[in-house]
Design brief:
- The protein is built from six helices and two strands, in the order H-H-E-H-E-H-H-H.
- By secondary structure, the protein is mainly alpha-helical.
- Strands 1-2 form a two-stranded parallel sheet.
- The longest helix has 20 residues.
- The model has no long low-confidence stretch (mean pLDDT 96).
């Protein structure tokens, strides 16, 4: 429970922790209680659809959180987009005409550093 989690966080604080992370508070009141209990930077784990409410930066800062991670937000968005695209392909036999926003392929290859890969290959490839 929260009382035990706070006890453990206090032990970490006494041991010299620079940042405290109390996992999975289940409501804003619990988050406020954690924020009030410590004078160290707190980390909030913002999981969309998880147990802890997702708060804005201003709300987190106002109750004592200095850091926030969003470990699955992009994955949830990407998965939803893939589901939409693959549903269309299944139902219509093609991605042609999709309304799902797509990254340009050229932008993807640039983002992934393909130019560096190709340069590496040109430099080190066996000419035969």
């Amino acid at each position: 429970g929260l009382d035990e989690a706070l006890r453990r966080a206090e032990a970490y604080a006494r041991a010299g922790a620079d940042v405290l992370f109390v996992e999975s508070p289940e409501n804003e009141d619990e988050m406020r209680r954690i924020g009030a209990a410590f004078d160290l930077p707190l980390l909030a784990n913002m999981v969309d659809g998880g147990r802890t409410p997702v708060l804005s930066r201003a709300e987190l800062e106002s109750i004592g959180y200095k850091l926030a991670i969003f470990p699955v937000t992009a994955l949830l968005a990407a998965t939803q987009a893939m589901l939409a695209v693959y549903t269309q392909i299944k139902e219509q036999g093609s991605s042609a005409g999709t309304t799902q926003p797509l990254m340009r392929f050229a932008d993807l290859t640039e983002l992934m550093g393909f130019a560096d890969v190709y340069a590496f290959e040109r430099r080190w490839a066996d000419p035969e």
